[in-house]
Design a protein that fits this description.
Largest sheet: 4 strands, antiparallel
CATH topology: N-terminal domain of TfIIb
Number of domains: 1
Order of helices and strands: EEEEHEEH
Structural class: alpha+beta
Amino acid sequence: MNLMRIRLNLDCPRCGGALFMEENEESVTIYCTRCGLRASWRLRDAARRALRNIDGSLIFDWNSVIDELYLELAINVH
């Protein structure tokens, strides 16, 4: 299973801990290593949301996916 994990330049909206983005063959997830808060989408759905048509060129904009997943995290803070 291929796995990519990167540290994001964002802090957890619940505890301020480090946030990571993890992508595998099935999903993309943003999660906190300290408190475990997480938001996840199927990779196909994330890729569909990231696809942008800019001046006739198809571009993958993962920043928009990260922003939307972060918003889900912030909404799910209890």
